[in-house]
C-alpha cells in the first residue's frame, strides 16, 4: 500500500484498535517510514500535566516516529468513559480544526494513522460519527475485527457499512481478544472468504502488548 494515511476503525469499542494501530506503526517505521498517529476524539481521560489525556492516545503519541504535542494527537479529550457525544456535554466537533491538524501531520510524516473512537457508526458528537470523519479526511479504511463469539456478524456488518459509505476498505486485521474462543481459526477463515478486502494480519491474544512482536504478524502494507 502506498497511501499517506489510513483510518483505523473496529467492530466495536475495546476491540484492540490501538494495539493494531501501534503494531502498524512499528511495521511501517521498520520499513523506514516517518509515521505519525492521531486519535482525534477520545473519552475516558485522566488529568495529567494540566490537561485531559487518554491512555490510547498516549500510546499512539509515544510510539510514533514523528514527535507531536499531545493536543495535536488528541484534539478532543473527554473525562467520562462513555460515548464521546455524551462525554462532550453537547459540544460539537470542529471538523475544520481536525482537518488542519491532519494536514499539518501529513507535512511531517510519510504516513498518518488516524484511530477512530468505538465502531464505524459510533457518534463522536451529535452531528459527526467515525464514518463522517473518515470521509472528511478522505482516508481509506482498515477494519479491526475482534475475534470472539459474534465476530462473523460484527465483521461483515462493519465491512458492509464501510462499503456503503463509499470509502475504500483496504484491509482488515483479526484481533484475537478471547484466548478461550473455540474455532477461532475457522471464524477468521470464514471472514477471509467473505470480506472483499485482504486480511492484513492475525494478532494473537496477549495480556501484555509486545508491539514489536505484534508488528511481525502484519503484512500487506
Account of the protein in words:
InterPro entries: DTB_synth_BioD, P-loop_NTPase. Pathway: Cofactor biosynthesis; biotin biosynthesis; biotin from 7,8-diaminononanoate: step 1/2. This is ATP-dependent dethiobiotin synthetase BioD. One of its GO terms (molecular function) is dethiobiotin synthase activity. The protein has 221 residues and is α/β, with parallel strands linked by helices. The chain has one domain: P-loop containing nucleotide triphosphate hydrolases (Rossmann fold, 3-Layer(aba) Sandwich). It is built from 9 helices and 10 strands. Helix 7 links the parallel strand 8 and strand 9.
Task: Spell out the blueprint of helices and strands.
Elements (H helix, E strand, L loop, with lengths): L4 E6 L6 H14 L4 E4 L2 E3 L2 E3 L2 E3 L1 H9 L6 H4 L2 E3 L5 H4 L7 H14 L2 E9 L10 H8 L3 E6 L4 H14 L4 E7 L8 H11 L4 E5 L7 H5 L6
Parallel strand pairs: 1-7, 1-8, 2-7, 3-6, 8-9, 9-10
Antiparallel strand pairs: 4-5
Helix pairs in contact: 1-2, 7-8
GO cellular component, one term: cytosol
Function: Catalyzes a mechanistically unusual reaction, the ATP-dependent insertion of CO2 between the N7 and N8 nitrogen atoms of 7,8-diaminopelargonic acid (DAPA, also called 7,8-diammoniononanoate) to form a ureido ring.
Catalytic activity: (7R,8S)-7,8-diammoniononanoate + CO2 + ATP = (4R,5S)-dethiobiotin + ADP + phosphate + 3 H(+)
Amino acid at each position: 500500500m502506498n497511501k499517506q494515511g489510513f483510518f483505523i476503525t473496529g467492530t466495536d469499542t475495546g476491540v484492540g484498535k490501538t494495539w493494531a494501530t501501534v503494531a502498524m506503526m512499528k511495521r511501517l517505521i521498520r520499513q523506514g517510514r516517518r509515521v505519525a498517529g492521531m486519535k482525534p476524539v477520545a473519552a475516558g481521560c485522566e488529568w495529567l500535566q494540566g490537561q485531559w489525556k487518554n491512555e490510547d492516545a498516549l500510546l499512539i503519541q509515544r510510539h510514533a516516529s514523528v514527535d507531536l504535542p499531545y493536543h495535536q494527537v488528541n484534539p478532543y479529550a473527554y473525562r467520562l468513559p462513555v460515548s464521546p457525544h455524551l462525554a462532550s456535554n453537547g459540544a460539537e466537533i470542529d471538523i475544520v480544526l481536525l482537518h488542519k491538524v491532519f494536514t499539518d501531520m501529513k507535512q511531517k510524516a510519510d504516513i498518518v494513522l488516524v484511530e477512530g473512537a468505538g465502531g464505524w457508526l459510533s457518534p463522536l458528537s451529535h452531528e459527526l460519527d467515525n464514518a463522517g470523519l473518515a470521509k472528511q479526511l478522505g482516508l481509506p479504511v482498515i477494519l479491526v475485527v475482534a475475534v470472539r463469539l459474534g465476530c462473523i456478524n460484527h465483521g461483515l456488518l462493519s465491512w458492509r457499512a464501510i462499503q456503503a459509505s463509499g470509502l475504500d476498505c483496504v484491509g482488515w486485521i483479526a484481533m484475537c481478544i478471547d484466548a478461550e474462543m473455540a474455532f477461532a481459526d475457522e471464524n477468521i477463515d470464514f471472514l477471509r472468504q467473505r470480506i472483499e478486502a485482504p486480511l492484513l494480519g492475525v494478532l494473537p491474544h496477549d495480556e501484555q502488548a509486545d508491539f514489536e512482536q505484534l508488528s511481525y504478524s502484519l503484512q500487506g502494507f
